[in-house]
Design a protein that fits this description.
Blueprint: E1 5-7, E2 12-14, H1 67-125, H2 128-138
Antiparallel strand pairs: 1-2
């Protein structure tokens, strides 16, 4: 019977060969019996982990939201959403009005320019020297002197009421 080391986790046993020779797989003294034989490593049996003496704590659970808080948050969210959309709508209207104002201002400036051109045509068509000649020679009018001119303040408004069309004025 060969000598064999056995390990079942509790004790070591040595078995014997029939010749009485103990087979060892380690170095005995200063000589090596087996050149290639290295001691076998014993495998350790993993022991079962000991049961814990205290229970494992579960992570603390956050409390849920109550019904009242949910209704309140929903109402606030809808109010914020409505305010946001009304703000965006108002901002859109303001931008639209600004673009309309710019277009109307450009139209007004064009009308003023057209009116100035027509006024210059009218002024250039009237010759004051010719009017003066006709008034003094043909109609025998005389230039007024300073003492003949009287200025007064009118209590009525400058507005003129027109009751009928002006004859000879064609539009």
């Amino acid at each position: 019977m060969a000598t064999d080391w056995k390990n079942d986790g509790r004790e070591r046993r040595q078995t014997r060969q029939s010749s009485g020779y103990y087979a060892h797989s380690y170095v005995d003294g200063n000589t090596v019996r087996k050149e290639s034989a290295a001691p076998k490593r014993r495998e350790r049996i993993q022991e079962r982990p000991e049961p814990r003496r205290y229970p494992v704590r579960k992570p603390a659970r956050m409390p849920g939201i109550s019904g009242k808080a949910f209704v309140f948050l929903t109402a606030m969210l809808s109010a914020v959403t409505i305010c946001g959309f009304s703000y965006l709508s108002t901002q859109y209207e303001v931008r639209n009005m600004k673009s309309q104002i710019v277009s109307l201002q450009s139209e007004i400036s064009q009308q003023k320019e057209d009116n100035d051109i027509e006024y210059e045509k009218i002024i250039s068509s009237v010759d004051l020297a010719e009017i003066y000649k006709k008034a003094t020679k043909k109609l025998k009018m005389v230039q007024a002197e300073k003492n003949q001119i009287y200025k007064y303040n009118s209590k009525k408004s400058d507005m003129v009421k027109q009751y009928a069309d002006i004859p000879g004025a064609d539009d």
